[in-house]
Amino acid sequence: MTIPTSTYRIQFRNGMTFDRAAALVPYLKRLGISHLYASPIFTAAAGSTHGYDVADANEIDPTIGGREGFDRLSDALKQHGIGLILDIVPNHMAASLENRWWRSVVEWGEDSRFSHFFDADWTRRLTLPFLGEDFEAVAGKGDMALCLDPDAGCLAFCYFDSRYPLSPATYALALDGIDHPLAERIRQAAALATPEDEDDFHAEMKQLAATEDRAGIDAALAEMAGNPARLKVLHDAQPYRLMNWRDAPNDLSYRRFFEITGLAGLRVETEEVFSESHRLTIELVLSGQVDGLRIDHVDGLADPRGYLARLREAVGPDCYLVVEKILARNERLPSDWPVAGTTGYEFIAALSEALVDREALPRLNALYGEVAGRTLDPQAELREAKARMVDVNFAGEFARLARLAGEIAAGHDDAGRIEETALKTALRDLLLAFPIYRTYGSDMGLEPADRHRLTEILESVRALPSPPQPQALGFLARILVGDVTGSEDARAAEFRTRFQQLTGPLMAKSLEDTLFFRLNPMIGLNEVGGEPMPEIGGLPEFHRLMARRFEEQPAGLSATSTHDTKRGEDARARLYALGEAPELWSGALSRWRHMNRAAVQALPTGPAPEPEVEWLIYQALAGVWPQDLTAEDVDGLQRLEERFVAYLEKAMREAKLRTGWDQPDEAYEAAVTDYARQLLSPDAVDFRRDFIAFLSPVLLAGAINGITQTLIKLCAPGIADIYQGSEGLDLSLVDPDNRRPPDFEALIAGLDCTCDPADPQAWLDGRLKQRLIQHLLAHRGRRPDLFAKGEYVPLAASGERARQILAFGRRTADQSLLVIAPRLMLGVLEGRGDRLPPPDAWRDTAVHLTERFGGRRFRDLVSDDILDPGAELEVRSLFATRPFAILLST
pTM of the predicted model, to two decimals? Predict the structure, then answer.
C-alpha cells in the first residue's frame, strides 16, 4: 500500500475549483505535502457547498471544472510529485430529481431499473417529504399545479420551483377530458413507454413540448389543477406520495443519512449497485490519477467489512484507504478491515489527554454546575438526548425495527406471546444503552467481540431502575446474535442490519449534535470522537493511546481540524489553556455577566440567555477571538459578529432545549443573539477591554498548546493531516464557519516571512506553526521509515516543572527522534503578560532517556546544535531560546 507522509485537505466548491487548486500545488510542494486530499468531486445537487449530496457518481462536477479541469489538476500534481486522495460517498446520494437514478425511481416506482439501488421499503409508495403542508392542503390552496415540463420531457406536479414527474401509466388520467392533438400524442407515447426505454420516451416528450402549440394543453392542465379532488386522485395513482417535510421522522419509506431526507441510502452491499456507483472512482484509481480513497460514513453501510473487501479487490493492494469512523473510548478499529486506519477523530480525543489539566477539570465542571443550577450527569443527559431522538427524530426507523421484531417473534412459539408494548420498551432501552456507534454483525449473527459487547450492554439494561421485560429483551438479543429458527434467518438479518444502521446516527445526533451544545463546562472537549465531560487520564493515558496507535494504525490520519470538527484546532488549544484556571475564569464570568446584565431579556419561558448559555457565549467568544482584535476595532468586531451570531443560532437549535430546527422559537433566538451583538457593540467597549486583558495570558498559553499539538501531529504515529488553512492560525467555529475559503495568498506569503521562535508574536499569529509544519514535513519526506515505522517511546521528566513537560521518542534500528514540548503553561505565564517563559522557569527539570536512545548524538532541528545527552536532557538548556525541542539522531 502506498502510504502518504502527509495530506492536505482541500474543500472544493465555494470558489475552490480544480484550476484554483492546481495553482496552489507549488505552495503545497513547498509546504512539504505528499498528497492532496480532496473533498467529494463528483457531480452534486445544484448549489451544493460540500459535495456529499452526490447526484451523479460517474461524472466529475462541471461546476468545479469537470473532467478536463480534474485532468489539469492531476497533471499539476504529478509534475510536482504529489499524490491525490479522494473522499468518496458510498452510503447515500442526493434524493433529488437531478439524480437520474432517483428521478427514475420517483417516476416509475418499483418498476424502475434503479429501484433496487436505494434502500427503500417497496411495500408502500415512495415518500417525498418536500411539501410545506399535506398534499391536500397544498392542492386546496392552489399551490400545486400540473404542467408539461419541456426540460425534463414529462408531465409533472408543479410545486413552486419543483417539478415531480408523473408516472407515464397515469398520463391518461391526467389528460382525461382534454381534447387537444398534443394531448393525444402524449397519451400514445406514454402508453408505449417502459422503464427500459425511459430515455427515448423523455426525448420524444421533449420534442412534442418543443414543436407543438402548447397554449391549449397548458390551459387545460391548469384547469384540472384547479380541481383539488381530481388532483388528489391523480396524486394517489402515483408510485410516490408527496408529503409534509415535518412528517418525515415518522413516515419515511427510504433510509436516509442521519436526519437528512434529501440524502437517500444506497444499497452498495449488492454487486450491481457497488459497480455502478464506483465505476468512475475505480477507473481513476486504476489509471494512476488517484492514489487513495477516504470512505465517508462507513458505519452507515449495511456491511462495512464486506464493502471494504470488495473495494480493496477493485482498487488493488497499493491504493491507500482510510475510513471515516468514530471510535468510542477504548473501542478499536476491526483488525480485519483492509484499510490503513481512520480519518483521525480519535487522535483529537487523545490530544486532550496531553493538553487538558486533569486536576483542574473537575473544579471547572463543578463551577459550571453551580452556574447551570443542576447536578451534572453526562450519561443521564446523553440518555435523555437519545430518548428524544428515538421518540421524535428517528421515530419511523424505530417503528420499522419494532414491527420487524414483532414479526420475527410471531414465528416463534416461545416468543409469540411477548406483547408488542414489551418488545418496543425493550428495544428502546437497548438503543438508549448502546455505548458505541455500532457493531458489525453479518447475515450469520454477531462475531465474538460484538457478542461480548452485547452481553455488557444487556447487563446495563437489566440494571436499570425500571428494566424491560426479560423475555422481550432476551428475544431481541437472540435476533441480534442469530439464534432464531431457520425460517426467520432473513428477517433476523434484516433486523440486525437495520439496528446497526440506526445505532450510529442515533449516537451521532444525540452526542455530537445535541449534547455537545447542551453540556458546556469546557466546549473544547465537545469534539467529534470525544465526550463533553471525560475522565482525563493525563500523560500516562496519552502515551498509552499513542503506543496503541503505533501498533494498530500507524498509517491512519492524524487530524486536528476537519470540515466536521466543532471548532478549529487553535481555538480548541486555547480553550484547553482556559480550563487550567477555573476560579479565574469563574470570577471573570461573574464580572462580565454583571457588566452586561441589562442585555438579558425576561421572556415568558425564562431569562434569555440563561446563565449556562451565557457561560457558553463567553467561552466560545474566548476561543474565536482574533489575537489582534482590539476593543475599538469596529470593522473587525462586525466581521466577528457575523460569524459568531451564526454559530450561536446553530448552537441553540442543535441543543434542542428552548428552540430547534423543526420549531424555532424566534423570540428566544433573537434575545440570545441580541445579547451577543451587545457584547460586540460600541456600548460594550469597557467589557471588551476587560475581556481582552483577561484573555492575554490565555492567548499565549493557547498558542503554546497549539505548537505542542502540531509537534505531536507531525511526530507521533500516524499521517499528519493538514486541513485547509490550519497550517496557520485556525480559530474557526462549527460549520459552515470552518468551511470558509482560507486566505491562501497570505499563507503562501507566510512561507517567505521571517520567524523567530523566541518571538511570542510568531506563536500568536501562526507564523511559527506554519514554519514548523514546513520544516518537519520535509524531514518526514526524507526519513519516511522513522516516522512510519519508528517505535513510540514515552519519556519521563523530573524536577519542579516535570508536570509541564511532554516528551516522547521515535526510533528504528538506525534512526531516532526526540520531541520535548511544554503543556499546562497558563500558571507558568502568570504575571508575564505576552512574554514566553525564560530558561530559568525550567530550573532543575530534566527528561530521562531510556537505554533505547543511549549512545546517540542528536541535532537540534531548530538551532542545528549538536547534542550528546547521555542519560538525560536538561530542559533549561534545551529551552534556552524557545520552549520546545525536536532532536534528530545524526
Answer: 0.96
